[in-house]
Amino acid sequence: MIRASAAGRVNLIGEHTDYNAGLVLPTPIPQRTRVTLQPRADDRVVVTSRELGARAEYQLGHERRTGTWLDYVMGCSHVLRLAGHGVGGCALDIESDVPVGSGLSSSAALELAVLRALREAYALPIADLALALLGQRAEVDLVGAPVGAMDQLAASLGTLGAALFIDCRDLAIRSIELPAVDLVVIGSGLRHDHAAGDYRVRRMECDEAARRLGVATLRDAGLGADGVAAIRRLPPPLDRRARHVVTENARVLAAVDAIRTGDVAELGAILKAGHVSMRDDFEASLPAIDELVAIASADPAIHGARITGGGFGGAIVALARAGTGAAASARIAAAYRTKTGQVPQILVAGDPCSPS
User: Fold this and answer.
1) Catalytic residue selected from 151, 182, 198, 351
2) What value, to the nearest 5°, has the Cα angle with vertex 311 and ends 307 and 317?
């Protein structure tokens, strides 16, 4: 019997930049997805999800998109086979406390937990970085979600208490220890889905903006005078989409500097600016989430807050003064529920190495 797991993640800053070959700054959260694998003598994979109370199975080599949760598992065996790695039939028992649809990468946690279990069970010679990229390919190919690699990289390479500074163009990765703050993550009660809807539209808009600017990706669009002028000439909403990406890359660099110098006030200000950009330029927030961010930002213990993840639902991330995260998150959640009627979920509220 093989046991493996992978963590969810919260993105501190760098939203919708990964598939634009840009910069991101995620950090793992304590919640994890856990997989127990028992080999079988045939070519069937039997999967049980404890949280969903569901059981499904499929035949290796016959993975097909179904539009269900099973696609994330089938995607893993599918990409392993395409990469020349043989696996056998097995029973997979899955349990997870990473909330689904909250912008905390439950899908990548599932993919990496399954891939880690398969790697160990069948002694596959796959390094952690390559495993992350296989997880991304599983989600793109079989699930049909046009995601970048940030989530899978964070699930595969991240460590609690540190942020991963990732250049999604060349996959240069550095781990940076977080300063003395309490990490606060609060689910809005509004779920999202990257395999459909507005996320897919935003990606197409970014691709079209890059094409009109004559660059390979929006990572190549500059913040200098010429670059800004070129972006302004784009038709709406492409101008706003491009502006978000290029300014978000700059915010990631500024956040890395703030973390290294321990300037938590500046880091909070960067998070606030990131939310404004996601709300106004990328239009990936929702009124209830804007309210949650506003409530958090007004709390005296909070340095800064913003929507996190791909948007259109999900969670917010905030930075609180060390030792104040639990009390602040309780105040924020209560005020949000009163104002909106939504049921929030406090996911992380304190030391970034400890769950709420």
Assistant:
1) 151
2) 20
Looking at domain 180-350, does it have CATH number 3.30.70.890? yes
Q: Which of 148, 121, 161 is nearest to 4 (CA)?
A: 121
Minimal CA–CA distance to 102: which of 29, 14, 41?
A: 29
Determine the Cα–Cα distance for residues 301 and 294; give it in Å rounded to an integer: 13
Which class would CATH give 2-175?
alpha beta
Residue of 156, 133, 145 whose CA lies nearest to 310: 145
Which band of pLDDT confidence, cut at 50, 70 and 90, is reported for residue 227? Answer: confident
The span from the first CA to the last CA of the chain, in angstroms, equals 31
169-196 pLDDT per residue, tens = 999 999 999 999 999 999 999 987 655 5
Two tokens, residue 152: 């899978």
DSSP 156-223: HH--TTEEEEEETTTTEEEEEE--SEEEEEEEEEE---TTSTHHHHHHHHHHHHHHHHT-SSGGGS-S
pLDDT tens-digit profile of 99-137? 888 888 899 999 999 999 999 999 999 999 999 999 999
Query: Looking at the chain, which residues constitute the CATH 3.30.230.10 domain(s)?
Result: 2-175
CA-to-CA distance for 81 and 163, rounded, in angstroms? 32
Q: Give the Cα separation of 272 and 259 in Å (integer).
A: 16
| CA 20 – CA 43 distance, rounded (Å) | 38
pTM of the model: 0.91
167 is catalytic: no
Number of residues that make up the chain: 356
CA 185 – CA 317 distance, rounded (Å) = 5
Question: What is the pLDDT at residue 99?
Answer: 87
